[in-house]
Design a protein that fits this description.
Elements: H1 2-29, H2 36-58, H3 61-76, H4 78-81
Helix pairs in contact: 1-2, 2-3
Length: 82
């Protein structure tokens, strides 16, 4: 069961890393300015890439889930505010 949770954390880290890099590319390279609600989503997405990456590196799935679960509601609340 521990191997499965490590895979889930790895997939979550890859998704957060890809989305963070894509947002940086769109904002910095293409020059598109995000809306005000997108800033809130970015504020909680960028730390997820770091926290989940450390969880993968240290093979500590419990820590990464606890830390990412705290920022998940705030990062996804943008979709419910529109």
């Amino acid at each position: 069961m521990a191997h499965r949770s490590e895979n889930i954390v790895l997939v979550a880290w890859m998704l957060s890393l890809i989305s963070s890099l894509a947002v940086l590319f769109i904002g910095e390279v293409l020059g598109q300015i995000p809306c005000s609600l997108c800033w809130f989503q970015r504020a909680f997405m960028f730390p997820l890439a770091i926290v989940l990456g450390l969880g993968v590196w240290w093979r500590d799935t419990g820590l990464s889930w606890r830390q990412s679960a705290q920022s998940l509601p705030y990062g996804t609340s943008e979709y419910f505010m529109v």
